[in-house]
């Protein structure tokens, strides 16, 4: 049985582009610490290619763990930015990873600006402002955080702490402003 967190291939392609935007928005945080490591940038490029239909889900599923290697940097903000790229790349496997890309991007933004208590919320607002109606509709098909254990929105890392808070904020916004199905 397929998890509700998977989404259809069309929906995954739709949310992949948005997840890539989220990851790319904080990519400079990673590249400032590891300028010679191309892995997150390459993961974002592959995510965009998948969104455009140039790569298959099967191709990306085989490569989905490659982007996670870059998260081994010592800087916490840079690691969060790399994890955002890895989550974006994993959207080809399961659509719920788009929310993981957004959550890790918001975490990276907050960690990169510890003197700014609004950095995380500003990043989430930026993400929400870039959602198209199609992205909103696709993401609104996902179960609420913690409601379905068969995927990244279950009881793991994305469900707790700052990551969980970001996803709950995004899902609350989606419930408030859900577009009509087209």
Give an overview in words.
With 182 residues, the chain is mainly alpha-helical. It has one domain. Helix content is 60%, strand content 0%. The longest helix is centred in the first third of the chain and has 17 residues, at 9-25. The chain is globular, with a radius of gyration of 15 Å. The two termini are 26 Å apart. The model has no long low-confidence stretch (mean pLDDT 91).
Secondary-structure element order, as H and E?
A: HHHHHHHHH
Structurally, the number of domains stands at: 1
- For the terminal residues, how far apart are their CA atoms? 26 Å
Class from secondary-structure proportions: mainly alpha
Task: Provide the descriptors you would attach to this structure in a database record.
60% helix, 182 residues, 9 helices
TL;DR of this structure?
The chain has nine helices and no strands. It has helices at 9-25, 27-33, 39-51, 57-63, 76-89, 97-112, 119-129, 133-140, 161-176. Helix 1 (9-25) runs parallel beside helix 6 and helix 5 packs antiparallel against helix 6 (97-112).
Set out the fold topology.
Elements: H1 9-25, H2 27-33, H3 39-51, H4 57-63, H5 76-89, H6 97-112, H7 119-129, H8 133-140, H9 161-176
Helix pairs in contact: 1-3, 1-5, 1-6, 1-8, 2-5, 3-5, 5-6, 6-7, 6-9, 7-9
């Amino acid at each position: 049985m397929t998890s509700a967190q998977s989404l259809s291939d069309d929906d995954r392609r739709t949310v992949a582009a948005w997840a890539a935007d989220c990851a790319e928005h904080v990519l400079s945080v990673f590249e400032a610490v590891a300028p010679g490591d191309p892995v997150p940038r390459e993961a974002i490029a592959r995510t965009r290619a998948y969104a455009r239909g140039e790569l298959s889900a099967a191709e990306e599923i085989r490569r989905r763990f490659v982007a996670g290697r870059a998260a081994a940097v010592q800087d916490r903000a840079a690691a969060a930015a790399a994890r955002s790229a890895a989550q974006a790349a994993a959207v080809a496997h399961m659509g719920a990873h788009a929310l993981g890309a957004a959550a890790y991007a918001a975490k990276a933004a907050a960690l990169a600006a510890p003197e700014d208590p609004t950095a995380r919320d500003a990043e989430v607002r930026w993400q929400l402002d870039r959602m198209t109606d199609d992205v909103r509709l696709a993401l609104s098909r996902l179960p609420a955080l913690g409601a379905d254990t068969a995927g990244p929105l279950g009881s793991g890392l994305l469900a707790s702490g700052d990551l969980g808070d970001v996803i709950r904020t995004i899902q609350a916004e989606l419930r408030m402003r859900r577009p009509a199905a087209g």
